[in-house]
Predict the structure.
Amino acid sequence: MTPYDSWLPSRRRRLTPFGYCLWHECCFLVSEFHYLLEKSQQLFAGLRDLPPTGRNWQPYFHRTFEVYTKLWKYQQQHRATLESTNNYGLKRWEIGEIASKIGQLYYHYYLRTSETNYLHESFIFYTAIRDRHYFKDVLEAKSSALMIKKLRYYARFIVVCLLLNKNDVIRTLLDELTALIDEYASTFKPTDSAEWNVVLSEITVFLESEEQHHILSTNGTPFMLPNRLVTAPGNEATPLPRPVSGGAVSPVRVQEAILVGNYQNQIKFSELTLDMYRMLQSLERGPSAAGAQQAAAPPPVPQKNPSGNGPDGGDAMQVDDDASKASTNAAVATATKTAGQGYHLHRDNPHKYLLYRPTISQLLMYIATAFKDLADHSVLLLYVSADGIKPKDATPAPSATGTHHLGGVVTATPFPRRLASSVSTADAAAAADTTDAPDAPVAVNCLYPDDLVPFLRKPLFLIMDSTNSSAYAALQHSAFAQRHCCCLLSPTELPAGLAGAAGAEIGNLFTLFLHSPLRALTVLCEFSPFDAAMWSNLTGAYVALETVAADLVANVADSAGPGASVLRTFATDPFLRVFLARFVMMRGVLARHALFRDAPAGCMPQSFPAIPAAVMQAKPLEDALQQLIAAAGIASQFAGAA
C-alpha cells in the first residue's frame, strides 16, 4: 500500500477513469521515488560503519552504487512528475544532494581502491552540480542546515580538485566559498562560523605552500609537472626507468602502502599533510595509464543528454545505460567476483591507507592488516613523515636490548589540533627532544625500529622522513631485513642556510625530492624564469639525469655486490624504481651543492642496502648533473660546478 492509497475513495469520485489512472500512476511514481530515496540514504549512512581495512566493504559499496544508479535514472525519467507541487514537489537542491552523494561515493571508492579514474568521476559530478546551479537557491529556504550542506559540498569539491591538481578551479571555488561563508555568518549568526574560517584558511595556506616551489615562465605562469607516474612512451617529465635484468627474480609490485603524517608544524588540509599529499600522488599512475589497463567497466558515468529533451533542457546529467548494467552485474567498477574466492580488485595503483596522527595501536593494526593481505610477490610500502623522538642520552644501558635506546618517531602527540601556521617550531622541537622515559607522554605513541621487525618476514619498503630517521638504520642488522627490506632514510638535519626554505612546515626536502626532483631543486637554488626553449632544455637534461640514475641503480641490482639481491627484487616495481633513482639523484645533487660541502653527515640521506660510493662518483652521473646545472643556470650555487 502506498502512502496515497488512503486518498482513493474520495479522489475516485472526483476523477474520470482516465484521470484516475493518471493520478494513480503519479502516486506510484512518487512512492517508488520515495522508497529509492530512503533506501539510498540508509545505505549511504551505513558506509561510515564499514571497517576501514579488509575487503568486506566491496559488496556493500556495490549495493549502494546500484541503488543510487536507480535513483538517479528514476528522477531523470520522471523529473516533471516529481517536480510538480501536486505530487512530490522535488526541489533542485534535493537533486543536487543526490548528485553530491554520488560524487562522495566515487571519492570514497577512490580512497578504497586508489584508482584515479574514480576521482575524475567524482569531479564530473561535482562540476555538474555547480554548472547546473543545483544549490543556487538554498539561501531562499532560510535553512542553516541546507547552507551547511552547500558549504560541505564546496569543501569536498576542493579536496577532489586538490588531488587532481586543478589549482585554477580551486582558486575560483575558494572565492565562492569565501562569499558563502560570509553570507552564512551574516544571515544565520551561527556558532560554527569560526570553524569554517579555519577550513578556508587551511585550504588557502595549503594551496599557497604547494605552489611555492613551481618553476615560472617568463610571463609569470608556472610550468606544470606531472605529479603521478606516467608510463606512456615519450613522456618528458616522468620517464619509466628500465627494469633490472640480472638473475632469475620474480617481479614484485607494491600492493599496500601506508602513509603516516605527524609533523606538528606542517601545513595540512583536513587530515592530509603536504608530505602525505605529495607521496600519495607519487604512488599513483596518471589517469590515462590507469584507464588503459582497467579490467572492467567503471561505475555509472554522468553525461549530458544528447537529445536535448531532458528535464533540464538537455543539460541534465544522464547515467550511461551500459555503465549502469556493468555496475549492477560487475560489483561496481573493477570489482569482479569469482566462484568461491570472493571479491577481487584489479588495481594499477597500490592500495593506500592515509593515517594522520595515528596512535601506535592504530598504526600497528593497519600495518598488521596490510601485512596479512599481502599476496605472493607483493610489497608493503610504509612511509612515515613525523617528528623524531630521541633520548637525551642515546647511550644504551648495560641491560638494554634491541634498538629502544635509539628512539624513533612520534606517531601521535598530545598537542591539540590547531591550524598549522599557528603551531610554533618550539612545540615540535620540544616533542622531538622529549626524554624517552617510561612516563613520557609521547613515548607511548612512538614507532621504534624494533616495532617493525615482525613485519620483515615479507617484503617491506620503508621511507622514513624524520629528524630521527637514522635510528631505523639499525633494522639492517635483522636477518629478515637482509632479505626482505629496503629503507630510504631522510637527512636528520639541514644546513643553516636551508633551515627556513626547506623546513618541515612547507613539506620536507626529502619527500619533495622523491616526489618531484625539479621542484626540490627550487628549494636549494634560486631559479630565474624560463622561456619555452630554456624549459625544453631543462626538462631534457632532467630526463637524461633520471635515466642515468635509474641505469646506475639497475647496474647495482644486476651486480653481485652486497645487497644487490634485495635491490634486484624491489627494482622490479616501477614505483620503487623511480624512488630509488630519485634517491640517487638527491644524493648526487646534495653532495655537489655549496651549502652541503662542509655540512655534518646527518645532512645527507641514507639507505640500506647502501648505494655504493662508486655510483655517486660515476662519470655518467657527474656529466648528467653538470648538464642539468647548466640548463638551469645555477652553476654558481654548486661547489666545483663549471
Observations:
- Residues 1-13, 232-240, 289-346, 415-442 have pLDDT under 50 and may be disordered.
